[in-house]
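TA notes, week 10

Several of you asked for a full example with nothing omitted. So below is the full record: structure tokens for the whole chain, then the designed sequence directly under it. When grading your own attempts, check the secondary structure regions first.
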């Protein structure tokens, strides 16, 4: 069966040339095949984005994020969700713009959900690198702030620490306990 056009056509042509005894250089995929593959990947990412985007806006909003997490079989409060937002360089919590989604998926090297899911262990391992962990930590706090705010409230900060430092810092629970007690003492003095 002959396939014409696109990358399939390029690969078939390369295989035919190789059978005829062409050199290895002659059988390498052409620039057109690479462009076709990139166009196909871009199309896949556009389709994937459209599957989760809000119907009224060109972004994946809260409902779309829930569906995205369900499709990936992850909890929205799981650290991998925050790691994905970091890799996508998301600017607003629980939202991905089209540009953030496509650029992030390209950065990760995933063009479908199955491939993205297979990248989770490697993405989590990035946090073992102190420089990446520092970048992730800073991103997490900036990302978690309410729009227009310069600081993060204590409740939100504790929630973020629980996500990013769980199983990474042995004193996390003592730190949170201390902050909660200090907050109660401070509130008592304000009354």
């Amino acid at each position: 069966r002959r396939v014409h056009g696109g990358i399939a056509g390029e690969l078939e042509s390369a295989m035919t040339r190789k059978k005829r005894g062409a050199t290895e250089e002659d059988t390498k995929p052409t620039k057109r095949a690479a462009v076709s593959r990139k166009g196909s990947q871009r199309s896949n990412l556009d389709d994937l984005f459209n599957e989760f985007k809000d119907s009224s806006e060109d972004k994946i909003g809260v409902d779309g994020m829930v569906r995205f997490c369900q499709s990936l079989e992850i909890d929205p409060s799981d650290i991998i969700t925050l790691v994905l937002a970091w890799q996508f360089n998301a600017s607003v919590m629980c939202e991905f713009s089209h540009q953030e989604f496509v650029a992030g998926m390209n950065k990760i090297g995933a063009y479908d959900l199955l491939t993205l899911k297979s990248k989770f262990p490697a993405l989590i391992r990035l946090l073992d690198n102190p420089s990446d962990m520092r970048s992730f930590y800073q991103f997490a706090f900036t990302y978690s702030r309410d729009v227009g705010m310069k600081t993060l409230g204590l409740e939100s900060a504790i929630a973020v620490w629980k996500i990013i430092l769980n199983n990474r810092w042995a004193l996390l629970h003592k730190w949170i306990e201390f902050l909660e007690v200090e907050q109660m003492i401070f509130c008592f003095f304000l009354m």
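The two ends are 81 Å apart (CA to CA). Use that as a sanity check on your answer.
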